[in-house]
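PT: before anyone asks, these are the final sequences, not the draft ones from last week. 218 residues across everything. Please model them as a single complex and drop the result in this thread when it's through.
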Amino acid sequence: MFKVTIEPLSVQQLNDLVKRPTDGAVVTFDGIVRNNFDGCPVEYLEYETYDMMAEKKLAEIGAEVQQKFAIGAIAMVHRIGRLEIGESSIVIAVAAPHRHAAFEACAYAMDRVKAEVPVWKKEFFADGADHWVNQN
Amino acid sequence: MQITVKLFALMREKAGTDTIALDIPEGAKLTQAMAALVRHYPVHEPYIANTRCALHMDFVDPETSLAAGDELALIPPVSGGV
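LR: through. Structure below.
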């Protein structure tokens, strides 16, 4: 499963989705909204996406990760819209026969998402200011 | 010929719209389209250098030739994940 959604994410759902009887490990990454940016209090975030391209890129990264590591299934879901502090913005689940490949593949997939998937984060601060991350 | 330019995030806000119709010469390349965009909409000038372009949901090279009706997406530095 590779998608963007406005619905809250479920780590358990993705975990169950990727697991096969031949797997000995599932590594999940749960990216959550932090309450500050370099110490400035953040109230909430908004994520915007180019949804069709984002889902295509997620699927491409999934295929790339499966080529590169000895894993079974991988799933990645990114949430968009308004997110509150502590909510999950992205969940990645990687299943593999052995744990090392799952750990490495999960970290690699997340790095690729941050570089290639058209999703943009806007932070809204406690003092009323806001800004788009990595822009200006 | 006319193409459609899709804008996101800060560029979308600066433009006040998420879609721009742009007239460019027949067979124009991406670099020429970007030059035309900045000429018509100088508000985007500060961001173009850091913006990647996508056609048909894939990133494309600046030398790519465009066709009438193309939907060109301007992809500013991404900041997904966490």
